Structure formats: structure tokens, C-alpha cells
Amino acid sequence: MRYRLPLSLLVMVCVAPQSNVAGDDNLSTQLMHCTFKITDGQTNGTAFVLSRSKASEQPQSVLVTAAHGLEQMKKDRIRLAARKPAANESFEKREVEIRIRREGKPLWAKHPEQDVAAIDVSLPAEIVLPCVPVSLLATDETLKQYQVQPGDLVRCLGFPHAAQFEANSAGFPVVRIGCLASFPILPTRRTKTFLVDVNAFEGDSGAAVYLDDPHRFVAGETEAQSARLILGLVAGQILIDEKFANIYQSGLTRHRMGLGVVVHATAIRETIELLDVAAER
Predict the structure, then answer these.
(1) By C-alpha distance, which of 239, 150, 252 is closest to 199?
(2) Which domains, and CATH codes, for the chain?
(3) Rounded distance, CA 80 to CA 171, Å?
């Protein structure tokens, strides 16, 4: 059984390129700096950062998440618990308000088939972020090029049980590792989702699932290359419901399978493109 993660969400925020944090080109570290917890006061979630450029314009910020998470947040504005540099190479939280509705009407674009939403946003200049471009979102062509296949180790960043658990005072997320667990992967518009062998919890909806392999053999090449791909976002988990009955009570118990359901990055790309279509109307 597929189960959405209803209490919290993880979002992606695509922002204009800013100063690199510590100059680190490790994708896990960059995404760690680009992932944030969000809240509307009742529902807690996360934010994740990318950067996109438009012709003859400045690089633009866009927020991407599992659509059901934004729909659960009923207020017109939500708060993003960002971070800014502090003394002694440390960080401190800096809350930023983001408008997601105007007069009750959603400002985000929603994918017509997949659990993905996107909305243009801006963040204060003091929120210093590494530049993680939208071009890292995997396509069918890059999945073939880097020979992504079942069993490949992948990672995800999120805020599991965000209302009850905080890993650190600066508000950095938790990174987890597992393998790509299902087949086939291609074509992504037909398969729509894939499974990862990672425990997913409330708060993980929208979590980026990515591949960061510095020594990967690429189709047609004789030497290993670096593979940096965002494969998709977590939209749910797999649970098994079991009925039980004994002399004095009966009920239903739910078991976690330890599998996350991930929407392909191609759906994220398509959702971002819908923002441009809406802007042209």
C-alpha cells in the first residue's frame, strides 16, 4: 500500500546563485546547506534549494515540493527556517516568510499527473547558499548516460518527524543512504515513480533523492567520471496494514516496509516549466 506523508513536507527552493558555502563542491554538503524546515504553525516541513536561469533575466528562485504538502498548509504564508553564517564558522537560524497563496488562491503550479508543485520565491541576500542548478535534475538521457540502475546507492535529505525531532540547533537536515530498489526506471514518463530502500517518515515528502558518485563509469567512456544527479523527490512510503483479533480486542496495526516512493525528476522539470507558461498568460 502506498501512503502519503501527511503531517509534514519537504520542498525544493530554487534560488539565484550566491556565494559558495566553504567552497565545498560535494553535492551532499551543498544540498545540506540548501535544505530547510518550513512551517505554517501546524504542519512542519522542509525546503530545498536549486538555481535556474531564464533568457535575458537574472537567475530565478523557485520552490518545489510534493503538491499534497502545500495543499495541507491552509495559511496564505508559511515560515522557512533558513540559516545565516555566524561567528566561528557556525550558523544560526533566520526565519523567512514565504507567500504561497493570495486571497486564498494557490500561487504554485501543480503537475497534472504527479505529486509535485512549484512556486517562485525569493530569499534574503544574507541567506548564503551554494549554487545547485536545476540542470542537475535527471532526464532520461542522463539516466542512460550514467547507467543509473537498481542497486545504485542514493541519498536523501529531509526532516523526519519534524515536529518532534531536530538534529541540531541550526536546523540542518538529516541525510540518509539506501539503494534504488525498483525496476524498470525508464522511460520516466511511463514509470512515473520508483522505490528507494530508505525509511521515509512524516516530514520527508518532497525530500530530494540524489546520486553523488565521484568515480562512475559512463557509457562510451573508458575513464571514471563524477556523477551528480538529483533523481527525484519523496512523495510517500509503502506501508502494510494488518488486522488482528484476540479475545478482548481487535484492530489494525500498520507496518513500515522501509521503502520510499519517489517521483522522477522529469516531473519536477515539467512543473517548473508550468510556471513559465502561467507567467506568459
Answers:
(1) 239
(2) 2-280 (2.40.10.10)
(3) 11
